[in-house]
């Protein structure tokens, strides 16, 4: 009987300084953002054969996330998470599902808050 496995590669707490937000000041001053990427696919062949061509290039994933976060300004971290997730799924055909968390440190709320977080997942049809 054929087996179907699902494996996951995670890049956790990727940190950038960027200029996103609803308030004008956020676009001027900027803030610290953190991203977690969860990449689901079957990496059995890569693991069995120790073959990098059968898995995901972490450096390329990192650059894609960096570019999405730093090359355009967004009002919403929800938009950032959406853009990253769809971009990764488009650029890496090996991926079955992508989950992205984007955290904005010290969001502008009337009180103490460590971070605001948007969590977005998308799968191939």
Please name the defining characteristics of this protein.
125 residues, alpha+beta, GTP Cyclohydrolase I, domain 2, four-stranded antiparallel beta sheet, 4 helices, 4 strands
Task: List the SSEs and their pairings.
Blueprint: E1 7-18, H1 24-29, E2 31-41, H2 44-49, H3 58-70, H4 77-91, E3 97-105, E4 115-123
Antiparallel strand pairs: 1-2, 2-3, 3-4
Helix pairs in contact: 3-4
Quick take:
The protein is an alpha+beta fold and 125 residues long. The chain contains four helices and four strands, in the order βαβαααββ.
Distance between the termini: 24 Å
Shape: elongated
Strand order of the largest sheet: 1-2-3-4
Low-confidence regions:
none
CATH superfamily grouping: GTP cyclohydrolase I, C-terminal domain/NADPH-dependent 7-cyano-7-deazaguanine reductase, N-terminal domain
CATH architecture: 2-Layer Sandwich
* CATH class categorisation: Alpha Beta
Structural class: alpha+beta
Give the helix tally.
Answer: 4
The major β-sheet equals: 4 strands, antiparallel
According to CATH, what is the topology?
GTP Cyclohydrolase I, domain 2
Portion of residues in beta strands equals 25-35%
- Average pLDDT, all residues: 89
Helix content: 25-40%
N-to-C SSE series? EHEHHHEE
Write down the Rg: 16 Å
Structural domain tally = 1
| Total beta-strand segments | 4
């Amino acid at each position: 009987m054929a087996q179907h496995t699902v494996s996951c590669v995670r890049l956790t707490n990727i940190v950038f300084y960027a200029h996103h937000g609803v308030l004008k000041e956020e676009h001027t001053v900027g803030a610290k953002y953190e991203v977690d990427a969860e990449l689901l696919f079957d990496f059995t062949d890569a693991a069995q054969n120790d073959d990098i061509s059968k898995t995901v290039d972490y450096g390329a994933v990192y650059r894609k996330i960096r570019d999405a976060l730093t090359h355009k300004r967004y009002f919403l971290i929800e938009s950032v998470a959406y853009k990253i997730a769809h971009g990764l799924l488009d650029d890496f055909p090996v991926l079955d599902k992508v989950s992205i968390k984007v955290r904005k440190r010290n969001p502008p709320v009337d009180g103490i808050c460590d971070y605001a977080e948007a969590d977005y997942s998308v799968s191939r049809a």
